[in-house]
Every structure is written in structure tokens, then in C-alpha cells.
Amino acid sequence: MTRPRPLVPRGDPADTVKVVGEFGVIGRVLAQAGTARAAQVGPGDDAAVLWTSDGRVVATTDVLVEGRHFRRDWSSAEDIGRKAAAANLADVAAMGGVTTALLVGLACPPDTQTSWLEGLAAGLAEECAPLGAAVVGGDLVAAAADSASVVLSVTALGDLGGRTAVLRSGARPGDVVALAGRLGWSACGLAVLRRGFSSPVAVVSAHRRPTPPYAAGPGAADAGATAMCDVSDGLLADLGHIAADSRVVIDLDRAALVRACLEPAGPLQQVGSALGVDPLSWVLTGGEDHALVATFPPRTALPVGWVPIGEVRKGGRTPGVSVNGEPAGDVVAAVGAEGAGHVHFG
Fold first, then answer.
1. Is 139 annotated as a binding residue?
2. Is 196 annotated among the ligand-binding residues?
3. Which of 70, 113, 145, 343 has its CA 20 to 30 A from that of 236?
């Protein structure tokens, strides 16, 4: 099929989705998509076809809404693409898998610049490329006439590579709680942006482009992790899911958390001092760094990149999360946080 040529050059203010048209935009976007190693049939047909050597497919979806999950005045199109991909790739890693492909659905206003969509596609491709994954399909639709917002839905498909999937429900009393990746950086960067600043660059960049430790997920599964999840809504909130599903208490070691996340002193302390905020609040309740947390059997040699931050105890009738034995709610109040983490519709 011959794709229509754009009626205006790239970069022209009139170079919008409405002018170029659906298939013209799709052609440009696919030029940025890259290639998925697992794709037998890639974009362009009614559906993609992927090789699945394991026989099982890990699947996860996230929806990102402009104004809630990203702002185009704060982040470039490439930033938003990388962030959208990272949220899904981290979920696959938290199951012990490796992402093989993405499907992307996008609703945008007709006056959206096609160059912005190309940047979004480039960001998605850049985040996926090191894993051998790529966007293999999706859908593009016009947003409602009265909407000026972009809505982005990303579905990730992954391969367990013969591993047993690591669930949230497997933690057992005596297990070691461990962390891979960094915490609090994205929340710190968000606090900076909300106040109209753009530095320190390190934390602002962490908010715009999180850096999940993708390889740590399969590594933890290979080492015998009993439960695992990524930290998307906040450490206390996400460990709360493991505690509830496993019917245990997860007790965090405050000193170990400080060593792992706040030493040596860096931009979190710098920004915290300037804003009058305890940086531990960002570590405990800040989301979107997409670090991984997992539980391991006692005396397990933790894989490279994992550090211990607590232990699992019997839950009895009240599973939950504590810090040095104090209930999470009390700790949240003590560090001045508004809650244990992000709550949709909250």
C-alpha cells in the first residue's frame, strides 16, 4: 500500500496528525520503532506474531494520562516514551522475565505535532533496544473533541526463559528483604519540578527517565527469590502488596535503607535541606523509580546489585509493613509524608 506523503515539511507548525493522516503518522512512527528479536511478523499486519521459546508469555499494561503521569512542558517526547516503556519493562522484570515486545495504543488531539509522536516512538525504542525488544503494533486514534490531552497505553509481553514466575505471594517468615535500584530520586525530581526549578539535573532526569535494573529481576528469579515486585507507587505501598498477598509482616531496617539509598550524601539530601523535607520520605513513599524489591530465603547469597533492607516476619491476623518494628503509618507521619505512596482515585 502506498502511504500518503506529508503535505507539509517536518517541523512546520501545520505538520500535525490531522494534516498528515493516520497512515502517514504510522509510517513515520514505525520508522523509529526498531526490531524485536522475538518477532516473526512485525508491524503492518492485523497483528504481530512472536516466537515464545518458553511456551508462556508474561503480559502487563499501563495507561499514562497527560497531566497525571507526565507533562509535555516538563518532559520531551523522548522522555515520555522512555518513561512509558520503563514502567512496563520493570513489571516484566519483577516477574523474573525479559520483555520481548510492546504494543502501544495512543489517543491524541488532531493538532498534535507528528514530530512529537516520532520523538515518543524514538523514546520507546531506545528503552527497549538493550533488551532486544521493540514496538510490534498498536493503535492510533483521535482524542475526544473537547480533550487536549494525550493518553498512552503500553502493553509489554515478556519471556520467562524457563524460570518460575516470581509472585507477590511467596514471601515466608525468615526471608531477607532486598532492594535493587534506587529509591526516592523520581519523587525528589518531581518536587523540584513542581516548584518551577530544573536542577539538580540528576533528580529531574531520574523523574523524566527512570532507570530500572531490568537484569536484576531474572537474576533474582535464578537465585531463588520467593516474592518480588517493582516500586511504582512507593516502597511502603508496594511492599504492602507483598505482605498482604503473602500474609506476612515485612519489617524494614531504617539504617540499612539509609545506607542503601541516602549514602553517600547527594542530591536527595541537598534538595531535602532546601525544601525542608526529610529525604527518607521520598525513599519510603516516592514512586516511579521502578526499583525492584524481593524476598530471598535465609542465608541465600544475594545476586549482584541486590542489598538487604529488612526481613520477613510472621503476619498473624495483621500482615503489613513496619520500619524497625514501628507501623508504616507512624513512620510516614514521622517523616512528614502525606501517605504511604500513590493511590489512584485517592
1. yes
2. no
3. 70
The answer on whether 53 is annotated among ligand-binding residues is no
Is 199 part of any known ligand binding site?
no
Q: Does 60 count as an annotated binding residue?
A: yes
Q: How many CB atoms lie within 10 A of CB 70?
A: 20
3-state SS, residue 204: helix
Domains and CATH numbers, the chain: 17-159 (3.30.1330.10), 176-335 (3.90.650.10)
Per-residue pLDDT of the chain (346 residues; tens, 9 = 90+): 344 444 556 666 667 877 777 677 777 777 777 889 999 998 888 899 999 889 999 999 999 999 989 999 999 999 999 999 999 999 999 999 999 999 999 999 988 999 999 999 999 999 999 999 999 999 999 888 677 799 999 999 999 999 999 999 999 999 999 999 999 999 999 999 999 999 999 999 999 999 999 999 999 999 999 999 999 999 999 999 999 999 999 999 999 999 999 999 899 999 999 999 999 999 999 999 999 999 999 999 999 999 999 999 998 789 999 999 999 888 888 877 776 665 454 5
Residue 233 annotated as binding site: yes
- Known binding residue 79? Answer is no
* Burial of 145 (C-beta count, 10 Å sphere; 0-12/13-18/19+): exposed
- The reply to whether 222 sits in an annotated binding site is no
54 has binding-site annotation: no
How far is the C-alpha of 94 from the C-alpha of 292, rounded, in Å? 7
Query: Is residue 155 annotated as involved in ligand binding?
Result: no
Evaluate whether 159 touches 105 at the Cβ level (below 8 Å). no
> Which element (helix H / strand E) includes 83?
helix 77-94
Residue 106 CB neighbour total at 10 angstroms: 22
Residue 175 is assigned to a ligand binding site: no
Nearest to 286 by CA among 341, 339, 206, 230: 341
Give the per-residue SS3 of 10-33: CCCCCCEHHHHCHHHHHHHHHCCC
